[in-house]
Amino acid sequence: MNAEQDRLDEARDPKHPWKKWGPYLSERQWGTVREDYSESGDAWNSFSHDDARSRAYRWGEDGLAGISDDHQLLCFALSLWNGNDPILKERLFGLTNSEGNHGEDVKEYYFYLDATPTHSYLKYLYKYPQRAYPYDELVRTNRGRRRDEPEYELLDTGVFDENRYFDVFVEYAKAGPEDILVEITVHNRGPEAAALQLLPTLWFRNTWSWGEQVARPVLRQAAPGVIGASHPDLGERYLRAEGATAFLFTENETNTERLVHVPNRTPHVKDGIHNCIVNGRREAVNPAQTGTKAAVQYQLTVAAGASATVRLRLSDAAPSGGKDAALGPEFAAVMANRRKEADAFYASVIPAALNADAANVMRQALAGMIWSKQFYYYDVDRWLAERGAGPFRPGHAPRNEHWHHMFNADIISMPDKWEYPWYAAWDLAFHTLALTLVDPEFGKQQLDLMLQSTYLHPNGQLPAYEWNFGDVNPPVHAWATMFTYRLEKAQRGQGDLDWLERCFQKLLFNFTWWVNRKDRTGSNVFEGGFLGLDNIGVFDRSAPLPTGGYLDQADGTAWMALFCQNMLEIAVELALTRPAYVALAEKFLEHVLWITSSMVHAGGDTGMWDEEDGFFYDVLRLPDGQAQRLKVRSMVGLLPLCAVTVFEGELIAKTPGSLDKVRRFLLARPELRAFIHDPVTPGKGNRRMSAGLNEEKLRRVLTRMLDEKEFLSPYGIRSISRYHADHPFVFQVGNQEYRVPYLPGESDSGMFGGNSNWRGPIWMPVNGLIVRALLQYYLYYGDDFQIECPTGSGRMMTLYQVAEDLGRRLSNIFLRDKKGRRPVYGDVEKFQADPQWRDYLLFYEYFHGDSGAGIGASHQTGWTGIIARIMHLFATTTPEQALELGKSAAVRETTPAPKKGTRRTGVVQRAG
Fold it and tell me: Per residue in 455-469, pLDDT tens?
């Protein structure tokens, strides 16, 4: 145990609210669906970055390196001004979807350096140019570039030339649940002294301007160097500021005069501090020193190569009449202790086998997971009502009109708090893999949240994301639920069966929704639309097909097979102590057999499995009854490999009649066993396996997947085979040609916004699923099953070794190679060579299929953060510990140790 683990245990008790304050501010509230009240539903343009400094938000707040309470009533963040920018730097800037040649994209450099799960210690870095920020140049240049051209980045503008920038480090340390220390250190990296206005800002979310009778909170100067904050729900808080030049007060109210030329309802408005600092309008701030938004003004001049530090403290302790020691020696002692405690906590999480570079990668990945928490507030019924729509007045809203039941006001793990500042259900399931390394309880809460009645639709559908809650994400919630349960069981000696049972009951609704809504013909072959894979298909799979007819989706059916296997796992676990679930376990076993057999052969002469190619494809079924496979070798065809789960046989041992029922079921339906792995045949340790692929099909798919000329990259498994670089798939519909080439980097298509690409790059979540699948197969086949890896290399590996090799390739994206370069940063020399940049990690949305360079959203630690779980997995000392990720039940037997002389490298060293 360590101090941070003690705090995690204490946080289970509401009397010790260690998590009440955290990094819960969004990094972009503008341009979101929640803030869009336009007739057209054009969220990006109805509330722009330029509007954000002047317009009060309705549903949340954003800021730079910010924190808030867990209802986002009171917020704290940085504002900065270098004397040259046209606006105060209060929030991160980026391009909208229409401005970027590859969709929306943040154009700033900031890093989540450290974080503990109770937020007792947080560290953040923002790199702020000393020259004027090139807002117009970034928009103009990117807008003029084609999709096949690289994006124009902030470094490309020259604004960081000669190192003329500030490194602004922000550290938070909690002396107690309601006592937060803030230390801001500004380093001048440039060749000359430079001036900076540093403006730590405290404000209330505007809850009083929306038609309800809500008491207005107030900020005031409570004492010299102290801002007092009074809120009817939050109570009293005090921000102490060391050595401040001045306090600047205004109101968090919209400047209607600037935006729509209507007189303001208050004399001081949201952009008052901006107008005071940048435009020199002193009257823009309140001389009475009260308001709902206030900044502490520091006018700094920092010498070349030097630094300046300021201290603040936000707490519920009122200032005393005498000398206030809150910013004195005790401050330094608490800050130093929290840093040491963060080190001790991560020493207990990060395997000692990892070298310093790998440990740094893993720690920053986990820090990013914690920093990506956000208070997400969206009352959909009220939002629709404000647009004139209601349950009995459909057709007045551009989206989400069937989701009136939703009321979200929770701390949720976000994919990326700038590019995707809204939750996505399937992303969230993957987030729990990394989150549970540091905070299993929070992981459980996140999974539970999506199943609450204020999220889950009454018909059983899980909400997808705010742009369209009714869209369909892959059904991975049950898998993440079982993973989290197994993890807690391994750590604590017993799992939370009551939690598992509650989740299972709600997941039954979701499973039923899938069966009733997405199995068009009742033949256990599933659709689902894009299913999170954006442009991977020949057509937009969420739109009507240009050919008419419909698709049998190999990935949709594979996802459902895995969902069914996971539900079977949960039912078996519950049935071991709660016999009422035995019947459900038997039912799910029958169902998974139907789905997996349909996946391999969907009936007729044209199934998804292609015997000649040894691969799975989507099947286009035309209105005239004809059918053909769309032969794109993609992740769609690899996902059936992932539909595998191994069972230990505890239920069979306890209820022998269950196995007899399975045998009778299969004997009566020999066609089911003809195409899939026989679930009755025992494997290593007398285990059984549910899988769509028998050994022969498994070898054929693996041979293709492990071929470096196809899917296997030095950095993981590509989303589309490299074969299509020279042989693009082409499909003709009338005069229209549909083409799918291998695109290892950015997309050349505008499909789904054009801001992601599944036609070649490496995606961490599906690679994680492949690792899990390989470990599952290894549990069943053991060391007897070996495969050539890479294909054609002559090197034979067990499936465990293949999984380990894949984990090493994925880790190599972030680790320094023999030349000291990180593939994630490609040919960007600033990140590769500069000591002030090269060890700060960004966890991108996806990665170049050949070079490993980061692409897409730059801060999607969300599901890319599972690299921490993968690094942890293969840095363990024994295979049975590593198999915790892949196994479906606690392994009772001892997994064979590596043969004598076998070197277990994990990710201690890079692959050669």
Answer: 999 999 999 999 999
Handedness of CA 855, 857, 863, 867 (dihedral sign): positive
Neighbours of 542 (CB within 10 A): 17
477-492 helix and 425-438 helix, angle to the nearest 10 degrees:
10
What is the C-alpha to C-alpha distance for residues 80 and 91, in angstroms, rounded to an integer?
Answer: 9
CA 142 from centre of chain: 26
Distance between CA 647 and CA 662 in Å, rounded? 14
**Distance separating alpha carbons of residues 508 and 54, to the nearest angstrom:** 47
513-519: which pairs have CB atoms within 8 A and are 24 or more residues apart? 513/457, 513/459, 513/460, 513/461, 514/475, 514/560, 514/563, 517/459, 517/461, 518/472, 518/556, 518/560
Task: Calculate the alpha carbon distances from 224 to 78, 180, 286, 321, 513 in Å.
Answer: 21, 19, 17, 11, 61
Q: What is the pTM of this model?
A: 0.94
Instruction: Provide the H-helix boundaries in 751-847.
Output: 764-781, 799-812, 829-833
Between CA 835 and CA 819 the distance in angstroms is 15
Q: Is the dihedral of CA 23, 28, 33, 39 positive or negative?
A: positive
Tokens 């022998």 belong to 656
E strands along 107-164, which residues?
110-115, 121-129
Q: How far apart are CA 295 and CA 65, in angstroms?
A: 15
* C-alpha dihedral, 216 to 220 to 222 to 226, nearest 10°: 120
Burial class (CB in 10 A: 0-12, 13-18, 19+), 722: buried
Determine the 3-state secondary structure of 791 from DSSP. Answer: coil
Task: Give the bridge partners for 94, in sequence order.
Answer: 106
Write the pLDDT tens digit of every residue in 864-904: 999 999 999 998 645 665 555 455 433 322 233 333 333 33
Alpha helix locations (H) across 91-205? 135-143
Q: What is the pLDDT of residues 476-503, one digit of tens each?
A: 999 999 999 999 998 888 999 999 999 9
pLDDT at 798: 97
Q: Find the Cα–Cα–Cα–Cα dihedral 415, 474, 379, 79, rounded to 10°.
A: 10
Q: Residue 727 carries which DSSP code?
A: S
Nearest to 862 by CA among 203, 211, 414, 442: 414
Under 8 Å CB-to-CB from 165, ≥6 apart: which residues?
A: 127, 128, 129, 130, 159, 189, 190
* Rounded-to-integer distance, Cα 313 and Cα 291, Å: 20
What share of the chain has pLDDT > 70, as a percent? 94
Structure tokens at 478: 């049950």
